[in-house]
Hints:
Layout: H1 2-26, H2 34-39, H3 43-59, H4 63-84, E1 97-104, H5 112-122, E2 126-130, H6 134-138, H7 141-146, E3 149-153, E4 161-165, E5 169-176, E6 183-190, E7 195-202, H8 209-227, E8 233-238, H9 246-255, E9 258-259, E10 282-286, E11 290-297, E12 308-314
Parallel strand pairs: 1-2, 7-8
Antiparallel strand pairs: 1-12, 2-4, 3-4, 5-6, 6-7, 8-10, 9-10, 11-12
Amino acid sequence: MNSLIIKAITTTLGSCSFILIFAIAFSFFGKYHWLFDLCSHFRLQYLVCSLPLIIALYFLKRPKPLIALLLLTLINAGLLIPHYRIQTPSHNESATSRSAVLLNVNTQLGSPSRVEAFILKTAPDFIILEEINEQWIQSIPRILSGYPHHCIRARNDNFGIGLFSKHPLSHKEIIHLGEAQFPSISASIDFGSTQLNVIATHTLPPKNGKYSYLRNDQLQKLAIYASSKDTPIVLLGDLNTTQFSFHFNEFLKQSKLSDSSTNNGILSTWPSFASALGIQIDHFLHSNDIIVTDGFIGPKTGSDHLPLVVHFQIQK
């Protein structure tokens, strides 16, 4: 019986090792297929799973899978380091601190009262709410009154979006970029001493090849649009991709924006019920004249997403 148990454990560990080896290996080829791109999002999970398996393979004397998994784990860990190399922000003592909240409220699951309570307690300068419809807008009167400047496109298909600001908005418009033609918001927030260009967006989840193509197409069009705007600029949205996707990094290059998680830590926003092992698909991206001084995750509000809160300074 003992030998059967040992054999079963050995077989199970070997199978898990090979699955993990292939998952990590495929994750580097997201450029070529949407399924490989999906593999790229779970680098932290790969690291967590790899370490005990490496130890097990060592004691089981399985050198070939051990070497393969060890090499891939080291490469994988190297991609995580820039995001966890936390640095003290080089903020300007004379610059005013600003704050923003991004939250995909989830049209069906989210709680308007919990969202309102969180927003009023956090009191950011501006808010991006996604997946809002007319019923949702009518259910958040305190946000509407506390943030009198807004640009909203309500929809019933989970792609409604709204920008709510304490400060005046100018040049606000609803734009449709990419073949999917889902609405994004472009506006300028007047902080008095400076103007901040804001883009709010939401892309399709890449659950199949078509949706993945449409998401990538929207990201490409957003990059072109963002690069044409004057700085300072921020882009916030549920991009349905992570920092580790080839397409996300191509977007950063084309848009000339920076990822707020670099040197500040990855903030897992989805799914809210397993945030410790979740992924960050909700993002705050910014031009080089903006310094992110703090970022954290807000409390659960009933949605499958957690709120993303970012504090920043405009160096202009």
